[in-house]
Amino acid sequence: MRILVLGSTGYLGGHIADRLRALPGVRLLTGGRHPDNDLRVDLATIAPSALAELVELAAPDAVVNCVGAAGGGALALVEANSRGPAVLCEALHSAAPTARLVHLGSVAEYGPTILGEQTPEEAPARPVSVYGASKLAGSLAVAASGLDAVVLRVTDPVGPGAPRAGLPGRLTAELRDALRLDLPGPVQVDDLSAHRDFVDVRDVATAAALALTAPRPLPPLLNIGSGHAVPVRDLVHGLVRASGYRGRVEEALGAVGRSPAVPWQCARITAARRELGWQPTHTLHASLTALWSADGAPARELR
C-alpha cells in the first residue's frame, strides 16, 4: 500500500509518518517543502494541475494531509488551511480518484461549546478565530469533495516534540532555559483558567493510521481527542513538576487570547471508537513525561 503523507516534517505529520513506517506492507511517500521529501510541493501556492501531475506519478493508494498553519496572519492561514485542502481535493479527483484522503482538522473549528459537555461531530461549527475559520473551510472542502475522505478533527495535541508555537512546547523550552541558566524565574504564562481536551500526539498518529487503512468508507468527520477536559493549569503544573523547576510560575489572569472566547473544549470520541476501533492510550501524565524527556532530559516523578 502506497501512502503519501503531506506535511511529514511537521509535528503531527512527523509522528504519523513514523507510525506508518512501522506498518507491514506500507510504502511511505512524503510531500512538502523540505528538500528530502519525495514530492516537493507547497499546497499554499501550487496549481491544481501541477499537483495532479505529481500525484499521478506518485500513484498513492491513500493520502493524509497534515499541512497547516497556526500563525503568520490571515493570508497565510487561508492559503495553507483553506486553499491547500481544496487544491488537494481537485488534484486527487483527476490523478487518484480512488485514493482515500485523511485530512487533519482542528477542534478550533467548533468555536464555543457547551460548558461541561462533550462536543459531538454534529455540533454546529462556529469558529471565533481566523485560524478556526480557515481550518473549517478546508474541512468543508474535503467533506464536499466526493472523494473517499474523512476529516479527523483533532483536539489539543501534546507529547514528544511539541513545537514552540503552542503552550506545551513553548513552556518546555522556557523551563529548559531556566534550568540551564539557573534562572530564579518567574516563568510567565497566560490565563490558564480554560479547560482543554489534550490528546497525545502518538494517539493521533494511531488514529490516522487506522483511518488510512480502514477496509470500509468512513463518516466524513471523526473527533480525535481524549474525551476529557482538564484545566490548562493542570498541564502547566504537571510539566513544571516533570521538569523539577523550583521557581515561580506567574499567571497573567485575564490575558487576552482565545481562552476567554472558548473556555471549554471536550470532544465526544464515541464515533472514532466505533468506526476505527480506536481509543486514546496515553494519559496526560504520560504525555508530559514524554514531552520533557524527548531531548534526553530526565523527567521527575509526577505526583
From TrEMBL:
Which residues fall in a coiled-coil region? none
In this chain the NAD-dependent epimerase/dehydratase domain maps to 3-225
Q: Where is the signal peptide?
A: none
- SUPFAM superfamilies per UniProt: NAD(P)-binding Rossmann-fold domains
Gene3D superfamilies linked: NAD(P)-binding Rossmann-like Domain (3.40.50.720)
Give the protein name, as stated in the record.
NAD(P)-dependent oxidoreductase
